[in-house]
Specification:
The chain has 454 residues and is α/β, with parallel strands linked by helices. It has 4 domains: 147 residues, Alpha-D-Glucose-1,6-Bisphosphate, subunit A, domain 3 (Alpha-D-Glucose-1,6-Bisphosphate, Chain A, domain 3, 3-Layer(aba) Sandwich); 108 residues, Alpha-D-Glucose-1,6-Bisphosphate, Chain A, domain 3, CATH 3.40.120.10; 81 residues, Alpha-D-Glucose-1,6-Bisphosphate, Chain A, domain 3, CATH 3.40.120.10; 74 residues, 2-Layer Sandwich (TATA-Binding Protein). It is 38% helix and 22% strand. The protein starts with 13 loop residues before the first strand and ends with a helix.
Length: 454
Protein backbone atom coordinates (compact mmCIF):
# COMPACT_ATOMS: atom_id res chain seq x y z
CA UNK A 1 0.00 0.00 0.00
CA UNK A 2 1.31 3.46 -0.90
CA UNK A 3 2.06 5.36 2.35
CA UNK A 4 1.32 8.86 1.02
CA UNK A 5 -1.46 10.82 2.70
CA UNK A 6 -3.30 13.01 0.21
CA UNK A 7 -3.64 15.61 2.98
CA UNK A 8 0.11 16.31 2.63
CA UNK A 9 -0.39 18.22 -0.62
CA UNK A 10 -1.46 21.79 0.04
CA UNK A 11 -2.03 24.67 -2.35
CA UNK A 12 1.65 25.55 -2.56
CA UNK A 13 3.70 22.98 -0.68
CA UNK A 14 3.76 19.59 1.03
CA UNK A 15 3.30 19.68 4.79
CA UNK A 16 2.41 17.27 7.58
CA UNK A 17 3.24 15.83 11.01
CA UNK A 18 6.34 13.64 11.28
CA UNK A 19 6.23 10.65 11.20
CA UNK A 20 2.43 10.24 11.09
CA UNK A 21 1.71 11.81 7.73
CA UNK A 22 5.07 12.95 6.41
CA UNK A 23 7.78 10.28 6.69
CA UNK A 24 10.69 8.70 4.89
CA UNK A 25 8.56 6.40 2.73
CA UNK A 26 6.35 9.22 1.49
CA UNK A 27 9.22 11.63 0.89
CA UNK A 28 11.23 8.99 -0.98
CA UNK A 29 8.34 8.50 -3.39
CA UNK A 30 7.82 12.24 -3.77
CA UNK A 31 11.52 12.60 -4.63
CA UNK A 32 11.20 10.03 -7.38
CA UNK A 33 7.99 11.64 -8.63
CA UNK A 34 9.64 15.06 -8.79
CA UNK A 35 12.30 13.77 -11.19
CA UNK A 36 9.69 11.93 -13.26
CA UNK A 37 7.79 15.20 -13.54
CA UNK A 38 10.85 17.31 -14.42
CA UNK A 39 12.44 14.79 -16.75
CA UNK A 40 15.72 12.87 -16.70
CA UNK A 41 19.16 14.40 -16.36
CA UNK A 42 18.25 17.39 -14.20
CA UNK A 43 20.31 18.99 -11.45
CA UNK A 44 18.32 19.56 -8.26
CA UNK A 45 19.33 21.58 -5.21
CA UNK A 46 18.21 20.14 -1.86
CA UNK A 47 18.31 21.98 1.48
CA UNK A 48 16.68 21.80 4.89
CA UNK A 49 15.88 23.92 7.91
CA UNK A 50 16.76 23.09 11.53
CA UNK A 51 13.96 20.60 12.27
CA UNK A 52 14.97 17.39 13.98
CA UNK A 53 13.31 15.24 11.32
CA UNK A 54 15.24 17.06 8.59
CA UNK A 55 18.22 14.67 8.27
CA UNK A 56 16.01 11.57 7.94
CA UNK A 57 13.76 13.20 5.35
CA UNK A 58 16.79 14.57 3.50
CA UNK A 59 18.23 11.05 3.21
CA UNK A 60 14.96 9.63 1.89
CA UNK A 61 14.30 12.51 -0.51
CA UNK A 62 17.77 12.47 -2.05
CA UNK A 63 17.61 8.69 -2.38
CA UNK A 64 14.45 8.96 -4.43
CA UNK A 65 15.86 11.78 -6.56
CA UNK A 66 19.10 9.90 -7.21
CA UNK A 67 17.37 6.64 -8.13
CA UNK A 68 15.54 8.46 -10.92
CA UNK A 69 18.84 9.69 -12.36
CA UNK A 70 19.05 13.34 -11.26
CA UNK A 71 22.17 15.07 -9.95
CA UNK A 72 21.89 16.44 -6.40
CA UNK A 73 23.48 19.62 -5.02
CA UNK A 74 23.37 19.61 -1.21
CA UNK A 75 23.58 23.16 0.20
CA UNK A 76 23.01 22.01 3.77
CA UNK A 77 21.01 23.65 6.55
CA UNK A 78 20.01 27.10 5.29
CA UNK A 79 17.18 29.63 5.10
CA UNK A 80 14.50 29.12 2.46
CA UNK A 81 15.58 32.18 0.48
CA UNK A 82 19.08 30.69 0.19
CA UNK A 83 17.55 27.66 -1.55
CA UNK A 84 15.84 30.03 -3.98
CA UNK A 85 19.10 31.88 -4.49
CA UNK A 86 21.06 28.71 -5.25
CA UNK A 87 18.58 27.55 -7.89
CA UNK A 88 18.26 30.94 -9.63
CA UNK A 89 21.79 32.34 -9.28
CA UNK A 90 23.66 29.24 -10.41
CA UNK A 91 21.07 28.22 -13.01
CA UNK A 92 20.13 24.81 -11.62
CA UNK A 93 17.01 23.02 -12.86
CA UNK A 94 15.05 22.79 -9.61
CA UNK A 95 15.22 22.87 -5.84
CA UNK A 96 13.54 21.39 -2.80
CA UNK A 97 13.46 22.97 0.65
CA UNK A 98 12.70 20.59 3.53
CA UNK A 99 10.84 22.84 5.95
CA UNK A 100 7.52 23.49 7.64
CA UNK A 101 8.18 27.21 8.00
CA UNK A 102 6.62 28.54 11.23
CA UNK A 103 4.82 25.32 12.25
CA UNK A 104 5.66 23.48 15.47
CA UNK A 105 8.64 21.14 15.62
CA UNK A 106 6.66 17.96 14.92
CA UNK A 107 5.76 19.29 11.47
CA UNK A 108 7.87 19.12 8.35
CA UNK A 109 7.33 19.63 4.65
CA UNK A 110 8.66 20.17 1.15
CA UNK A 111 8.66 23.34 -0.94
CA UNK A 112 9.49 22.97 -4.64
CA UNK A 113 10.87 25.38 -7.23
CA UNK A 114 12.02 24.88 -10.78
CA UNK A 115 14.46 26.79 -12.98
CA UNK A 116 14.72 30.46 -12.05
CA UNK A 117 13.25 29.66 -8.61
CA UNK A 118 9.75 29.54 -10.09
CA UNK A 119 7.36 27.98 -7.60
CA UNK A 120 5.80 24.58 -8.24
CA UNK A 121 2.30 24.92 -6.78
CA UNK A 122 -1.06 23.20 -7.16
CA UNK A 123 -1.57 25.26 -10.33
CA UNK A 124 1.87 24.57 -11.80
CA UNK A 125 2.67 20.90 -11.23
CA UNK A 126 2.46 20.03 -7.53
CA UNK A 127 -0.64 17.89 -7.96
CA UNK A 128 0.93 16.20 -10.97
CA UNK A 129 3.86 15.26 -8.73
CA UNK A 130 1.34 13.98 -6.17
CA UNK A 131 -0.34 11.78 -8.75
CA UNK A 132 2.99 10.35 -9.92
CA UNK A 133 4.05 9.66 -6.32
CA UNK A 134 0.82 7.80 -5.64
CA UNK A 135 1.67 5.34 -8.43
CA UNK A 136 5.10 4.44 -6.98
CA UNK A 137 4.65 1.26 -4.95
CA UNK A 138 8.09 -0.34 -4.57
CA UNK A 139 10.12 0.15 -1.39
CA UNK A 140 13.14 2.45 -1.30
CA UNK A 141 16.57 0.94 -1.85
CA UNK A 142 18.59 2.77 0.80
CA UNK A 143 20.68 -0.30 1.58
CA UNK A 144 21.62 -1.03 -2.03
CA UNK A 145 21.86 2.30 -3.81
CA UNK A 146 25.15 4.20 -3.80
CA UNK A 147 24.08 7.82 -3.32
CA UNK A 148 26.29 10.52 -4.82
CA UNK A 149 25.98 14.08 -3.49
CA UNK A 150 27.79 17.27 -4.39
CA UNK A 151 27.95 19.68 -1.46
CA UNK A 152 28.07 23.42 -2.03
CA UNK A 153 28.37 26.35 0.40
CA UNK A 154 26.34 29.23 -1.01
CA UNK A 155 26.38 31.59 1.98
CA UNK A 156 29.07 34.05 0.87
CA UNK A 157 27.77 34.31 -2.72
CA UNK A 158 24.28 34.90 -1.35
CA UNK A 159 25.47 37.60 1.07
CA UNK A 160 27.55 39.31 -1.60
CA UNK A 161 24.47 39.43 -3.83
CA UNK A 162 22.42 41.08 -1.06
CA UNK A 163 25.15 43.60 -0.27
CA UNK A 164 25.49 44.55 -3.93
CA UNK A 165 21.78 44.95 -4.65
CA UNK A 166 19.87 45.92 -1.50
CA UNK A 167 21.81 48.15 0.87
CA UNK A 168 24.01 51.24 0.79
CA UNK A 169 26.76 50.23 3.18
CA UNK A 170 28.37 53.69 2.97
CA UNK A 171 25.23 55.29 4.47
CA UNK A 172 25.03 52.87 7.40
CA UNK A 173 24.66 54.32 10.89
CA UNK A 174 25.81 52.68 14.15
CA UNK A 175 22.44 51.20 15.05
CA UNK A 176 21.79 48.99 18.05
CA UNK A 177 19.40 46.26 16.92
CA UNK A 178 17.52 43.53 18.77
CA UNK A 179 17.19 40.42 16.59
CA UNK A 180 15.15 37.27 17.20
CA UNK A 181 15.96 34.24 15.02
CA UNK A 182 13.32 31.98 16.64
CA UNK A 183 15.89 29.16 16.79
CA UNK A 184 16.19 29.03 12.98
CA UNK A 185 19.11 29.85 10.69
CA UNK A 186 18.53 33.62 10.46
CA UNK A 187 20.91 34.31 13.34
CA UNK A 188 23.86 32.58 11.71
CA UNK A 189 23.14 34.32 8.42
CA UNK A 190 22.84 37.72 10.10
CA UNK A 191 26.16 37.30 11.92
CA UNK A 192 27.91 36.48 8.65
CA UNK A 193 26.15 39.32 6.83
CA UNK A 194 27.25 41.92 9.37
CA UNK A 195 30.82 40.64 9.39
CA UNK A 196 31.12 40.45 5.60
CA UNK A 197 29.47 43.83 5.09
CA UNK A 198 31.50 45.40 7.91
CA UNK A 199 28.35 47.05 9.25
CA UNK A 200 28.91 49.48 12.15
CA UNK A 201 25.93 48.04 14.04
CA UNK A 202 25.53 46.11 17.26
CA UNK A 203 23.12 43.18 17.44
CA UNK A 204 21.66 41.93 20.69
CA UNK A 205 20.60 38.36 19.87
CA UNK A 206 17.55 36.43 21.02
CA UNK A 207 16.99 32.71 20.26
CA UNK A 208 19.99 32.69 17.88
CA UNK A 209 21.21 29.14 18.44
CA UNK A 210 19.58 26.80 15.88
CA UNK A 211 17.35 24.28 17.64
CA UNK A 212 14.81 22.20 15.74
CA UNK A 213 13.01 21.29 18.96
CA UNK A 214 11.90 24.95 19.22
CA UNK A 215 12.07 24.98 23.03
CA UNK A 216 9.83 28.05 23.40
CA UNK A 217 7.05 26.67 21.23
CA UNK A 218 5.82 27.54 17.77
CA UNK A 219 8.49 29.59 15.91
CA UNK A 220 5.94 32.07 14.58
CA UNK A 221 6.66 35.80 15.07
CA UNK A 222 2.95 36.63 14.90
CA UNK A 223 1.64 34.62 17.84
CA UNK A 224 1.09 36.59 21.07
CA UNK A 225 3.75 34.88 23.20
CA UNK A 226 6.46 35.45 20.58
CA UNK A 227 5.46 39.07 20.19
CA UNK A 228 5.39 39.68 23.93
CA UNK A 229 8.81 38.06 24.35
CA UNK A 230 10.24 40.38 21.73
CA UNK A 231 8.59 43.49 23.18
CA UNK A 232 10.01 42.80 26.63
CA UNK A 233 13.43 42.05 25.14
CA UNK A 234 13.34 45.34 23.23
CA UNK A 235 12.46 47.35 26.33
CA UNK A 236 15.29 45.76 28.29
CA UNK A 237 17.89 46.25 25.55
CA UNK A 238 16.83 49.79 24.52
CA UNK A 239 17.50 49.14 20.84
CA UNK A 240 16.98 51.45 17.86
CA UNK A 241 14.63 48.87 16.36
CA UNK A 242 13.94 45.16 16.45
CA UNK A 243 13.67 42.46 13.80
CA UNK A 244 12.36 38.92 14.00
CA UNK A 245 12.08 36.00 11.59
CA UNK A 246 10.21 32.71 11.51
CA UNK A 247 12.07 29.39 11.60
CA UNK A 248 13.00 29.24 7.91
CA UNK A 249 13.50 33.03 7.76
CA UNK A 250 11.29 33.74 4.75
CA UNK A 251 9.10 36.08 6.84
CA UNK A 252 10.35 39.24 8.54
CA UNK A 253 8.74 41.57 11.12
CA UNK A 254 9.83 44.73 12.87
CA UNK A 255 9.50 46.45 16.23
CA UNK A 256 10.00 50.16 16.72
CA UNK A 257 12.39 51.64 19.29
CA UNK A 258 9.59 51.61 21.89
CA UNK A 259 9.20 47.86 21.55
CA UNK A 260 5.88 48.16 19.67
CA UNK A 261 5.18 45.67 16.91
CA UNK A 262 4.93 47.06 13.38
CA UNK A 263 2.15 45.20 11.58
CA UNK A 264 3.21 43.55 8.32
CA UNK A 265 0.51 45.61 6.59
CA UNK A 266 2.36 48.79 7.54
CA UNK A 267 5.79 47.35 6.72
CA UNK A 268 4.52 46.59 3.22
CA UNK A 269 3.65 50.29 2.83
CA UNK A 270 6.96 51.51 4.29
CA UNK A 271 8.95 49.31 1.91
CA UNK A 272 6.77 50.14 -1.09
CA UNK A 273 7.15 53.88 -0.48
CA UNK A 274 10.93 53.55 -0.26
CA UNK A 275 11.29 51.37 -3.36
CA UNK A 276 8.95 53.51 -5.48
CA UNK A 277 11.10 56.58 -4.77
CA UNK A 278 13.95 54.74 -6.47
CA UNK A 279 11.81 53.08 -9.18
CA UNK A 280 8.77 55.33 -9.81
CA UNK A 281 5.84 54.13 -11.88
CA UNK A 282 6.43 50.41 -11.31
CA UNK A 283 3.77 47.77 -10.52
CA UNK A 284 3.51 46.77 -6.84
CA UNK A 285 1.42 43.83 -5.66
CA UNK A 286 -0.43 43.87 -2.34
CA UNK A 287 -2.69 41.31 -0.73
CA UNK A 288 -6.46 41.26 -0.38
CA UNK A 289 -6.63 40.82 3.40
CA UNK A 290 -6.04 44.52 4.14
CA UNK A 291 -5.97 46.95 1.27
CA UNK A 292 -6.65 50.62 1.99
CA UNK A 293 -3.18 51.65 3.21
CA UNK A 294 -1.46 49.63 0.47
CA UNK A 295 -3.58 51.03 -2.36
CA UNK A 296 -3.29 54.60 -1.10
CA UNK A 297 0.48 54.40 -0.56
CA UNK A 298 1.29 52.79 -3.91
CA UNK A 299 -0.95 55.28 -5.72
CA UNK A 300 0.43 58.29 -3.83
CA UNK A 301 3.99 57.22 -4.65
CA UNK A 302 3.25 56.88 -8.34
CA UNK A 303 3.18 53.10 -8.51
CA UNK A 304 0.68 50.79 -10.16
CA UNK A 305 -1.28 48.96 -7.40
CA UNK A 306 -2.26 45.34 -8.10
CA UNK A 307 -4.40 43.44 -5.57
CA UNK A 308 -3.71 39.71 -5.31
CA UNK A 309 -4.68 36.69 -3.22
CA UNK A 310 -1.97 35.68 -0.72
CA UNK A 311 0.20 32.60 -1.12
CA UNK A 312 3.83 32.53 -2.21
CA UNK A 313 3.34 30.60 -5.46
CA UNK A 314 0.42 32.77 -6.57
CA UNK A 315 2.30 35.99 -5.80
CA UNK A 316 5.44 34.79 -7.60
CA UNK A 317 3.51 33.87 -10.73
CA UNK A 318 1.88 37.32 -10.77
CA UNK A 319 5.23 39.00 -10.10
CA UNK A 320 6.63 37.49 -13.29
CA UNK A 321 3.55 38.23 -15.39
CA UNK A 322 3.49 41.89 -14.32
CA UNK A 323 7.28 42.31 -14.06
CA UNK A 324 6.41 43.85 -10.69
CA UNK A 325 8.99 45.74 -8.67
CA UNK A 326 7.83 44.48 -5.30
CA UNK A 327 5.07 42.48 -3.66
CA UNK A 328 4.05 42.24 -0.05
CA UNK A 329 1.81 40.03 2.04
CA UNK A 330 0.52 41.26 5.38
CA UNK A 331 1.79 37.95 6.83
CA UNK A 332 5.39 39.18 6.49
CA UNK A 333 6.37 37.75 3.10
CA UNK A 334 8.02 40.33 0.83
CA UNK A 335 9.01 39.66 -2.79
CA UNK A 336 11.54 41.50 -4.92
CA UNK A 337 12.05 41.66 -8.68
CA UNK A 338 15.78 42.05 -8.09
CA UNK A 339 15.78 38.84 -6.05
CA UNK A 340 14.49 36.61 -8.85
CA UNK A 341 10.88 37.59 -8.09
CA UNK A 342 10.76 35.54 -4.88
CA UNK A 343 10.33 36.25 -1.19
CA UNK A 344 13.27 36.92 1.10
CA UNK A 345 13.32 37.64 4.84
CA UNK A 346 16.76 39.24 5.03
CA UNK A 347 16.17 41.87 2.33
CA UNK A 348 13.47 43.78 4.28
CA UNK A 349 15.95 44.05 7.15
CA UNK A 350 18.58 45.54 4.84
CA UNK A 351 16.06 47.97 3.35
CA UNK A 352 14.95 49.04 6.82
CA UNK A 353 18.59 49.78 7.69
CA UNK A 354 18.72 51.99 4.61
CA UNK A 355 15.41 53.69 5.36
CA UNK A 356 16.35 54.56 8.93
CA UNK A 357 19.93 55.52 8.07
CA UNK A 358 18.67 58.05 5.53
CA UNK A 359 15.80 59.34 7.65
CA UNK A 360 15.79 61.75 10.57
CA UNK A 361 12.84 59.92 12.08
CA UNK A 362 12.77 56.79 14.25
CA UNK A 363 10.76 53.79 13.13
CA UNK A 364 7.90 54.67 15.52
CA UNK A 365 7.35 58.00 13.74
CA UNK A 366 7.34 56.32 10.32
CA UNK A 367 4.97 53.55 11.42
CA UNK A 368 2.67 55.86 13.40
CA UNK A 369 1.54 57.58 10.21
CA UNK A 370 0.00 54.29 9.11
CA UNK A 371 -1.13 53.22 12.57
CA UNK A 372 -3.10 56.45 12.97
CA UNK A 373 -4.63 56.63 9.50
CA UNK A 374 -5.28 52.93 8.87
CA UNK A 375 -6.29 51.12 12.09
CA UNK A 376 -6.21 47.34 11.69
CA UNK A 377 -6.99 44.29 13.80
CA UNK A 378 -4.03 42.46 12.34
CA UNK A 379 -4.67 38.81 11.56
CA UNK A 380 -6.81 37.11 14.22
CA UNK A 381 -6.92 33.31 13.99
CA UNK A 382 -9.70 31.03 15.18
CA UNK A 383 -9.78 27.23 15.21
CA UNK A 384 -13.06 26.15 13.64
CA UNK A 385 -14.52 22.95 12.22
CA UNK A 386 -16.98 24.59 9.83
CA UNK A 387 -15.09 27.36 8.04
CA UNK A 388 -17.20 27.32 4.88
CA UNK A 389 -20.45 27.55 6.85
CA UNK A 390 -19.14 30.51 8.84
CA UNK A 391 -18.15 32.36 5.67
CA UNK A 392 -21.61 31.75 4.24
CA UNK A 393 -23.19 33.18 7.41
CA UNK A 394 -20.91 36.22 7.22
CA UNK A 395 -21.83 36.80 3.59
CA UNK A 396 -25.52 36.67 4.48
CA UNK A 397 -25.15 39.05 7.41
CA UNK A 398 -23.06 41.60 5.50
CA UNK A 399 -24.76 41.21 2.10
CA UNK A 400 -25.25 44.98 1.78
CA UNK A 401 -21.49 45.63 1.52
CA UNK A 402 -19.27 45.35 -1.56
CA UNK A 403 -18.39 41.65 -1.74
CA UNK A 404 -15.24 40.17 -3.30
CA UNK A 405 -14.10 36.56 -3.34
CA UNK A 406 -10.53 36.86 -4.60
CA UNK A 407 -9.47 34.87 -1.53
CA UNK A 408 -12.00 33.85 1.07
CA UNK A 409 -14.62 36.54 1.65
CA UNK A 410 -13.95 40.28 1.60
CA UNK A 411 -16.70 42.78 2.39
CA UNK A 412 -16.18 46.54 2.11
CA UNK A 413 -18.20 49.50 3.42
CA UNK A 414 -17.33 53.18 3.26
CA UNK A 415 -15.98 53.23 6.84
CA UNK A 416 -14.66 49.68 7.33
CA UNK A 417 -13.91 46.38 5.61
CA UNK A 418 -12.98 42.81 6.50
CA UNK A 419 -11.60 39.62 5.02
CA UNK A 420 -12.03 36.08 6.35
CA UNK A 421 -10.29 33.12 4.77
CA UNK A 422 -9.24 29.58 5.58
CA UNK A 423 -5.56 28.90 6.11
CA UNK A 424 -3.87 26.85 3.40
CA UNK A 425 -1.51 25.22 5.90
CA UNK A 426 -3.38 25.02 9.23
CA UNK A 427 -6.98 24.29 10.45
CA UNK A 428 -7.68 27.98 11.05
CA UNK A 429 -10.03 30.72 9.93
CA UNK A 430 -8.16 34.00 9.59
CA UNK A 431 -9.85 37.38 10.14
CA UNK A 432 -8.57 40.83 9.19
CA UNK A 433 -10.52 44.02 9.88
CA UNK A 434 -9.64 47.62 9.00
CA UNK A 435 -11.60 50.82 9.57
CA UNK A 436 -11.42 54.60 9.41
CA UNK A 437 -11.23 54.81 13.23
CA UNK A 438 -9.69 52.62 15.90
CA UNK A 439 -12.97 52.44 17.82
CA UNK A 440 -14.91 51.19 14.80
CA UNK A 441 -12.18 48.66 13.97
CA UNK A 442 -12.37 47.20 17.48
CA UNK A 443 -16.17 47.16 17.44
CA UNK A 444 -16.36 45.29 14.12
CA UNK A 445 -13.57 42.89 15.07
CA UNK A 446 -15.47 41.88 18.21
CA UNK A 447 -18.68 41.57 16.19
CA UNK A 448 -17.09 39.26 13.63
CA UNK A 449 -15.29 37.15 16.22
CA UNK A 450 -18.61 36.57 17.95
CA UNK A 451 -19.98 35.25 14.64
CA UNK A 452 -16.89 33.12 13.94
CA UNK A 453 -16.52 31.64 17.42
CA UNK A 454 -20.21 31.30 18.17
Amino acid sequence: MNPIHLSLFKAYDVRGVYPDTINEDAVYRIGRALVQYLGKGKTIVVARDVRLSGPALFAALTQGIAEEGATIIDIGMVTTEMLYFAVAFYGYDAGVMISASHNEGQYNGLKFVQKGAQAISSDTGLFAIRDLAMKIENEKKLTTYNLQLTTKDVLDDYIDYLLKNFVDVSAMKPFRIAANANFGMAGKVLERLIARGKFPITVTPLNFEPDGAFPKGKPDPLIPERREEMTQFMKKEKSDFGVTWDADADRCFFYDEKGEFVDGYYTLCILAEYLLKIHPGEPVIYDVRQTWASFDTITRCGGKPIMMKPGHSFIKDRMRKEHALFAGENSGHYYFRDYFGVDAGMIPFLLMLDILAKSNRPLSAIADVYRKNYPTSGEVNSKVSNAQKIMELAEQRYHDGKIEKIDGLSVEYSEWRFNIRSSNTEPLLRLNVEAKTDALMKEKTAELLALIRG
